[in-house]
Design goal:
Layout: E1 7-8, E2 11-12, H1 13-37, H2 51-54, H3 61-72, H4 78-102, H5 110-115, H6 119-122, H7 126-147, H8 150-162, H9 171-184, H10 188-192, H11 194-214, H12 228-242, H13 250-255, H14 259-265, H15 271-281, H16 286-320
Antiparallel strand pairs: 1-2
Helix pairs in contact: 1-3, 1-12, 1-14, 1-15, 1-16, 3-9, 3-12, 4-14, 7-9, 8-9, 11-12, 14-16
């Protein structure tokens, strides 16, 4: 199937499908938090949380997000980098406000406000803290991957992956490099059979995980983001969406602000209370929780759009002075 490059509302047709994938992935991120930090996280079966049974169905979301960045390449722009850091501060402060509303026992303090003015050092979001470093490293990684031949690049990918057994902090680095690698050296077999590979791996791990947990066995490495049961589905679902043709202009608008859903709902202050509130409201109905997750992503994207325009307006006013 040949992809067209037709422009649709400023976004190429081939990119619309990837934007839709980003919306889906963020919805799965929020969904995972709702069941992981909501009621399922306390209704334990021995030492195992029932949310772990559903984990194989969605835990490839982080890998897929970073793979998209790696495949298309991060173009470091300091203005965009600064905008992201400022947004992190804004959403960190919004999280304090949300915590004040839904957590009766939470008391707003000056120290809490000051701490959340520095969300990166406070590590309120593990993913964002690492992603910012990845953005800074991206120009070097992009140049390096272009300079390496296939044999050298393959060795690099394998070394990064094998290092996972001793150092889990290489996650984002490995997935990003893998994206650059497959952009330069496509895997035709995986591209042509993306749907089959995705369904097969996800369902196999779902059954395997269910069997192991029914025996009271939980293998942490299998549930790690660098597990092959996360990496392979992440790549496969990317290829699956890459082959689609989407023409709805609104996708790009919503997708541009999906990160806000993560920043607002996964802040350490309101996360537990927010997820529990949603879980209890729908009495743990998984389909309803997925619906809530999608709604949260859309609403937060609209909030991000307003924040972006506000910051843009502020920048224009400052530049004219």
């Amino acid at each position: 199937m040949t992809l067209k490059s037709k422009e649709i509302g400023g976004v190429k047709e081939r990119e619309q499908s990837i934007e839709l994938l980003r919306i889906l992935l963020m919805s799965l991120v929020v969904f995972g938090h709702l069941i992981g930090h909501g009621g399922f996280s306390t209704a334990n079966l021995g030492d195992l949380s029932p949310s772990a049974y559903l984990y194989p169905l969605y835990f490839y979301h982080v890998d897929a997000f970073v793979f998209i960045s790696g495949y298309f390449g991060i173009k470091l722009k300091w203005k965009k980098f600064a905008m992201l850091v400022i947004k992190m501060v804004i959403y960190s402060l919004l999280a304090i406000g949300l915590a004040s509303l839904i957590m009766p026992d939470y008391k707003l303090s000056l120290s809490s406000i000051l701490k959340n003015l520095y969300p990166i050092s406070a590590c309120d979001w593990w993913f964002m803290s690492q992603y910012l470093y990845l953005m800074l490293l991206a120009p070097i990684l992009n140049y390096g991957m272009e300079a390496l031949d296939k044999k050298q690049a393959t060795v690099l990918v394998l070394v990064l992956y094998l290092s996972w057994f001793r150092c889990t902090s290489v996650l984002l680095l490995f997935i990003y490099v893998l994206g650059r690698y497959l952009r330069k050296y496509p895997c035709k077999m995986l591209e042509d059979n993306a749907g089959k590979v995705f369904i097969s791996i996800v369902m196999f791990f779902f059954v395997l995980n269910y069997y192991l947990m029914s025996k009271g066995v939980y293998v942490q490495k299998l549930h790690d983001y660098m597990s092959p049961f996360a990496v392979i589905p992440a790549v496969a679902i990317f290829y699956l969406f890459k082959r689609m043709h989407i023409t709805w202009k609104g996708i790009g608008v919503i997708a541009s602000g999906v990160l806000a859903a993560y920043l607002i709902t996964d802040h350490e202050l309101p996360r537990k209370a927010f997820c529990s509130l949603c879980f209890e409201t729908v009495e743990g109905n998984v389909i309803a929780l997925l619906g809530i997750a999608i709604g949260v992503v859309v609403i937060c994207s609209m909030i991000d759009l307003a924040v972006t325009r506000f910051l843009g307006l502020g920048a224009c006013i400052i530049s004219k002075r």
